[in-house]
Structure formats: C-alpha cells, structure tokens
Amino acid sequence: MSVSNNADIAAMAEQINSFAITNKDELETFRIAFLGTKNKLKDLFGLMGKVAHQDRKEFGQLLNSLKTSAEEKFAQFSESLDNDTSGEAKSNIDLSMPGFPTPLGSRHPVTMTLDRIIEIFTKIGFTVEENREIEDEWHNFTALNTPDDHPARDMTDTYYLANDFTRMLRSQTSTVQVHVMESQKPPIRIISPGRVYRNETISSRSHCQFHQVEGLYIDKNVSLADMKQTLDYYAKAMYGPHAKTRLRASYFPFTEPSAEMDVYWGLETEDDKRITKGTGWLEVLGCGMVDPAVLENCGIDPEVYSGFAWGMGIERQAMLKYKVTDIRHFFENDVRFLSQF
C-alpha cells in the first residue's frame, strides 16, 4: 500500500476525531460530511481499484475502521445531545419569567343578572320553570285574559309565524305560568325565566328581543301586601339594603289591581336624566294580583285561591345594577363592553 494512501487515511481519521460537535446543528454537519450520500469517505473507497492486489485487504479494513469510527462518534454525540438538559436549549428558557397570558372570556352581564335573580327568589321557596318559545294564542293571549281586540295581538306588536298565524314567538314568559297552572294544583310558587320577542322600535331603553323573569304565587289568602313585601325584599337583595322602590297604578289584562314598580336610579348625570326621562326613577317590573278570570281559565277556583304575579326584563335589571345606559350594548357582542364584566 502506497505512502500517499496511508497519508490520506490518516488525514481523514484526524478530521473525524477533531471535528467539534457541541450542538445538533454541528452534529448534522458531521453526518453529512462523513456519513451522508456524498460523504468524504467515498473518495477513499474509490481508490480501492488502484491499490495493489496484495494490499487491498489491509486497505479495506482501514476504510471500514474509519467509517465505523465516524458512525460511533455520530451515535455518541446524538445520544448525549438528546439527553442534555444543561446546554444551549435550557439556557434559552428563563423559568422565572411569567408565562404568556391566555385570553379568557367572561360571563355575560345578562347571565350574571339572571343567576342572581334566581338565587334571590329560590331562597324564599320559588322554583324555576321553563317552557317553549313558540306558543299558540291560548297560552300567549286568551288564557291571560287578553281581549281579542287588544293591540298586543296585532301583527305590528307580535311576531307570528309566516306559515301559521295561530302561532307566534312568545311575547312574555307568562305563558309558562299558564302551563304550570294547567298541570299543577296550588300552592304554586314559581319563577319562569326565558327569552321573549316583541315588535318594538329598538332604542336605548327597549329592544325587539330581550329576557324576562316572571313570577307567580298562588295559595289561599294571598294578598297585595304579600306581593309588595316580596318585591321589596327582591329590590333590596338585588340593589342593596338602601334601594328605594315605589308602586304606580297600571293596567294589565291578567292582573287586577295592577302596578308597575320603579327603583330609584338617580339624577346626577345627563345619562341619568335621559334614561329615567328626568324623573330619577326607572321602571323595573310590572305586577299585580292575578285576575280571577285567569285562574278560572286555568282550572283554579278563584273563590278558594288568590295570588300575585310579576314580570321583569332582565336587561332592565342589569342596566340598573351595572349602570348601563343603553340596552343595545347587551346584544352587540362588543368585547370592549363585555370584558368589563
């Protein structure tokens, strides 16, 4: 075997042994140089045909030893870099730094208000009842003592189904009360939360869809004083022990006598004056003693039982609780508004 061949093999062995590997990029460079498809060892293997016949065995063994040396070095550093926890990879991570914040949603103020209303009334024995949003005329109007010529029945006030004008999107959750009175015997003490629809002009104070909670209490010897005490308890639990309320005489087909309850909002800003129409008071619910005709329609004897009912818009309660001056904010899905809750 010639001296030049021995020198080539010794030089290649020196390159393999001296190649510095401190990271995975350098390891990959080493693999390409000495073990890749176009590695440097192939040039030496190409000299095999020029080596004298009697020297070929020794030359082949030296080449194989050279290749084995490269493979062993690659395997050794590949394993050590995979198991290394104190090198460059770790130095790039500062475990003392705070993590990246994950954006979180928040509960809708209407949902929070509804949950609070339910909590208040369940503490005094009311249970929650729910039912369908598409109703017939009997449950939405007739059973509730609404006359055939009442404006609420007009298509300009109620959303009727296009293919069935005897059915509609309910305009009040009083429909749930009718279902309960038809299927249960007194005493009845329920609240019925849900979404309702009315063909109203959208403004800062009203919307064509909103949420209601209606309440019903029927038993023997129920009086107007019971109603006033119950609603006063609600107002103070909802808005604080110093909340001011007042009842104003009103009219609803399904209650007699009827009233509207206001809670004092205040008159400190221009928004206060606008939302309360300059009075300082904001109407939060309608109420009254259940009309005996409604009890009869639902199969309850008005000579034995009496009761009171009320209905409130949840958005209106949320406006009062969180001092929101425009009801439209609740439906616009503006993250800048919702994130405040």
Question: How would you sum up this structure in a few lines?
Answer:
With 341 residues, the chain is an alpha+beta fold. 39% of the residues lie in helices and 21% in strands.
What report would you give on this structure?
The protein is of the alpha+beta class and 341 residues long. The chain has 2 domains: 3-91, no CATH class; 111-338, Bira Bifunctional Protein, Domain 2 (BirA Bifunctional Protein, domain 2, 2-Layer Sandwich), CATH 3.30.930.10. It has 13 helices and 10 strands. The chain has helices spanning 3-18, 24-34, 41-45, 56-83, 88-91, 109-122, 137-140, 174-183, 224-239, 270-275, 292-297, 314-322, 335-338, and strands at residues 127-128, 134-136, 160-161, 164-169, 188-197, 209-219, 245-252, 255-264, 281-290, 306-313. It has a 7-stranded mixed beta sheet, sandwiched between helices. Strands 2-4-3 form a 3-stranded antiparallel beta sheet. Strand 7 (245-252) and strand 8 form a beta hairpin. The longest helix is centred in the N-terminal third of the chain and has 28 residues, at 56-83. The N and C termini lie far apart (87 Å). The model has no long low-confidence stretch (mean pLDDT 85).
